[in-house]
Amino acid sequence: MSYLFTSESVSEGHPDKVADQISDSLLDEFLAYDAESKVACETLVTTGQVVLAGEVKSKAYIDIQETARKVIERIGYTKSEYQFEAKSCGVLSAIHEQSDDINRGVDGRIDPMDQGAGDQGMMFGYATNETDNYMPLALDLSHALLFELAAIRKNELHLMPYLRPDAKSQVTIEYDDNGTPLRIDTIVISTQHDDFADDVTMQSQIKNDVINILVPRVKSKYKTREDVISLFTDDITYHVNPTGRFVIGGPHGDSGLTGRKIIVDTYGGKGAHGGGAFSGKDPSKVDRSAAYAARHIAKNLVAAGVSSEVLVQVSYAIGVAKPMNIYVNTYGKSNVAMADGEIAKVIDRMFDMRPKAIEERLKLRNPIYSETAAYGHMGREPQIVTKEFKSRYNPKGIIREVELFTWEKLDYVDAIKKEFNL
Questions:
Q1: What's the alpha-carbon Rg for the chain, to the nearest Å?
Q2: Number of Cβ within a 10 Å radius of residue 140
Q3: Strands 163-175 and 90-97
Q4: pLDDT tens readout for residues 292-325
């Protein structure tokens, strides 16, 4: 019997994502000037206010207020009627030094590779061949809808001139008993918009634009996948701004906090999640670095043909370098004559999962994190970019060339094929 599965995404203007982007931009600023910075910062946004808290150990001094305001401006909160605006909002910092009790677990070792995990916990990585980027299809579509909506708002506003920064999406897909997508059942879009006298006419216009402008743009992104294109049938159910009005939004409409969109950030409910958030954390925090490493392993396993779907788990104790376990689940879809436990032993041998080794393998001590803080940390295209960091406290500034989304590289496929005789 067929079944339905749903995933959601939120835009860069969603209050929780505003908070994530501020936290990760602060992290990038610290890492740009001091690669060994230890950072765990949280952000709260609400009407006219930004509150920053957390712990930092760094040789760098950064302009926290300016960094937060630049993020808010880049997102698009630039008008007073939003009641949360880049230049006028208050920014309160309660960031302080990292606890010595935590720091002793990750610093001061004779061998850097003995660097312990910044906390205990379990992390998961997941991959599936449903899409070219090895992400679950419902989540990938949800991200794509909002990414395109933001592109229209920023670059082609004449197409949908009423758009404001806050938005959410949700996609429900029907699957058959074998887990093959059959069709898109439902698309939900809630987008903040300008105030209009005639709500009924306005909402009709927004729905028409979503169906006839936004969805075709998203569909075109999958032109190399006929199996995905075929899912866009004429009987999709659309719920566009289903409350009938979405003028009050962003941090004025709902407060935002760092780390509240961990399912959006990862796999949309597919696979599993260990519960740890990513944004604002430097890579000594395995909540982040080990989750990236587990995704890297899972993606390369699927790309190599070990299985069409893979879940990888790793767990740590605080202050201990070697992980407690490596677990692999191929959901009964393995293409190799090995039990999942045997596959896990091979992976344990191939990939050094000590925190410092992960940092070095994936080049995580670079200012690469602000780009991860909206539209998902996984499934993004690896790329090399040049970033400039400059503020009133660092007027000369620095320019850094960095590689983004290194955990998405398919650089272990050949080695895995050789190891598993594929």
A1: 22
A2: 28
A3: unpaired
A4: 999 999 999 999 999 999 999 999 999 999 999 9
DSSP per residue, 83-151:
T--TTTSEEEEEEEEPPHHHHTTTS--SSGGGPPBSS-EEEEEEEETTSTTS--HHHHHHHHHHHHHHH
How does DSSP classify residue 44? E
Q: How far apart are CA 118 and CA 196, in angstroms?
A: 50
- CA dist 29 and 369 (Å) reads 10
Is the distance from CB of 281 to CB of 40 less than 8 angstroms?
yes
DSSP 350: H
Cα gap 54→385, rounded to integer Å: 28
Strands 121-128 and 38-46: unpaired
Cα–Cα nearest to 232, from 189, 184, 186: 184
Cα–Cα nearest to 289, from 127, 409, 134, 407: 407
Kindly tell me the sign of the dihedral angle through the C-alpha atoms of 362, 363, 366, 368: negative
DSSP 3-state of 312: strand
Report the relative pairing of strands 383-391 and 181-193 from DSSP bridges: unpaired
Q: Give the span between the Cα atoms of 180 and 168, in whole angstroms.
A: 26
Cα–Cα distance between 146 and 166 in angstroms, integer?
10
| Mode of pairing for the β-strands spanning 383-391 and 394-404 | antiparallel
How are the residues of the chain apportioned to helix, strand and coil, as percentages rounded to the nearest 5? 35, 25, 40
Strand intervals (E) in 222-262: 237-240, 256-257
Burial class (CB in 10 A: 0-12, 13-18, 19+), 24: buried
Tokens representing 381 are: 């295209």
Distance separating alpha carbons of residues 332 and 340, to the nearest angstrom = 9
- Residue 319 tokens, joined: 């202050």
Q: Tell me the pLDDT tens digit for each residue of 9-47.
A: 999 999 999 999 999 999 999 999 999 999 999 999 999
